[in-house]
Write a structure and sequence with these properties.
Elements lengths: L1 H94 L4
Length: about 100
């Protein structure tokens, strides 16, 4: 009877050992998935930061370009105004209406 009980205990122990090994393998697989997921999150955060920096750079470049366009427009308007004033003064001088 004792021998039968020992055999039953050994059998149950073997079953428990197999189950334990399966759980350990499953746990290891889950840990690897968590680590992979953490790595992906970190990569996504880095990529997001890189995109943010690139967007800010583009915004600054657009501001500079706009500023240059406005500066050229102001220069052209100023040039036109100066030409108009000179032309008007020349007309006045020709007519003899100088004050």
């Amino acid at each position: 009877m004792m021998k039968e009980e020992m055999e039953e205990i050994k059998k149950q122990n073997g079953t428990l050992m197999d189950t334990c090994c399966k759980y350990e393998e499953s746990l290891k697989s889950l840990q690897e998935k968590v680590q992979d997921g953490a790595g992906k999150v970190e990569n996504d955060e880095i990529k997001s930061e890189e995109l943010k920096i690139a967007w800010k750079r583009e915004q600054e470049e657009d501001k500079v370009k706009f500023s240059e366009v406005v500066k050229k427009e102001i220069q052209e308007k100023t040039k036109d105004t100066v030409i108009q004033v000179i032309t008007k003064n020349e007309d006045l001088v020709r007519r003899g209406n100088v004050s």
